[in-house]
Amino acid sequence: MIAQPTVDEIVAHARRDHPDEACGVVAGRVGSDRPERFVPMRNAARSPTFYEFDSIDLLKLYREMDELDQEPVVVYHSHTATEAYPSRTDVSYASEPGAHYVLVSTREPDTVEFRSYRIVEGIVTEEEVRVVAVLDPEETS
Amino acid sequence: MAIEVRIPTILRTYTGGEKVVAGEGATLAELLSELDSRHAGLRERIVDEKGLRRFVNVYVNDEDVRFMGGLETALKDGDTVTVLPAVAGG
C-alpha cells in the first residue's frame, strides 16, 4: 500500500531523469511496512541501462535511516526503454529481502507502468500495488 | 584493539542477528579473517578470490575503501567499518 503523492513523486523523478534510469527509496519505520519518506537518490551510473546509488550517498542514507529507526520499505528504479519488470541484473543485485522493489517504465511518454515485486534469493514475485490517497494512521499497540 | 563493524540486514544470518559486532585487525583483510573465525561464511560474502565483491560496499568511518587502500586499508582502534550491499541494477 502506497500513498498517491509518493507514487507521483516516484513517477516525476523517473520522468525527470529519462532517458537515464532514476532510483531511490521510500523509507518507513522498521517493521511497519509503511512507505512514508520519499528519498530520491542520484544514479551514479547516469545510464539508460544501469543504476547504482552513489556509494557515499548510500552510506549517508543508511546512517540516517538507522538514526530514525527506519528501513527501505520501497526501493524503486526506472526502466526507460523496457517493461517495468526486474531484469536479471536487478535480481542479482537485490539485497533487501524485506523491501518492495518498485519498477517504473517511462518507455511510453503518455502512460506509466508502476509495478511492485519482492525479490528474495533470486525469486521474483509480483505483488498488487494498492494506491491510497493517504496512508491510514499507524496502529499503535 | 576493537573495531566496530556494522552488518547489513542480509548478512545478519552470519552474526546471529547482530547488527553491530566487534572485531580486530590492522587492515581490513585482517579484520575480515578475524571476523570469519567467529562468524563463519561472512568473509566470503564480502570478498572473492579477486578482492572485494563488486556489489558490496565497505566503508571505514566515512570513506569507501575502494577510494582508500581496498583490503589493505589500515585500521585503528575505534574505527567503524560499515558493510552495505550496493543498491544497483539494470
Number of strands of chain B: 8
Give the SSE order of chain B as H and E letters: EEHHEEEEEE
How is the quaternary structure best described? heterodimer
Indicate the percent of residues in helices of chain B: 10-25%
Descriptive account of the structure:
- The complex is a heterodimer of chains A (141) and B (90).
- Chain A is α/β, with parallel strands linked by helices and 141 residues long.
- Chain A is built from 3 helices and 9 strands; from the N terminus they run E-H-E-E-E-H-E-H-E-E-E-E.
- Chain A has a 6-stranded mixed β-sheet.
- In chain A, 35% of the residues are buried.
- Chain B is of the alpha+beta class and 90 residues long.
- Chain B has 2 helices and 8 strands, in the order ββααββββββ.
- In chain B, a hairpin with a 2-residue loop joins strand 3 and strand 4.
- The longest helix of chain B is centred in the middle third of the chain and has 11 residues.
- The model of chain B has no long low-confidence stretch (mean pLDDT 96).
- The chains are: A alpha/beta (141), B alpha+beta (90).
How would you summarize the topology of this molecule?
The complex is a heterodimer of chains A (141) and B (90).
Chain A: E1 2-3, H1 4-17, E2 23-29, E3 37-41, E4 51-52, H2 55-67, E5 70-79, H3 88-93, E6 100-105, E7 113-120, E8 123-127, E9 131-132
Parallel strand pairs in A: 1-9, 5-6
Antiparallel strand pairs in A: 2-3, 2-5, 6-7, 7-8
Chain B: E1 3-6, E2 20-23, H1 28-38, H2 42-46, E3 47-48, E4 51-52, E5 56-60, E6 63-64, E7 80-85, E8 88-89
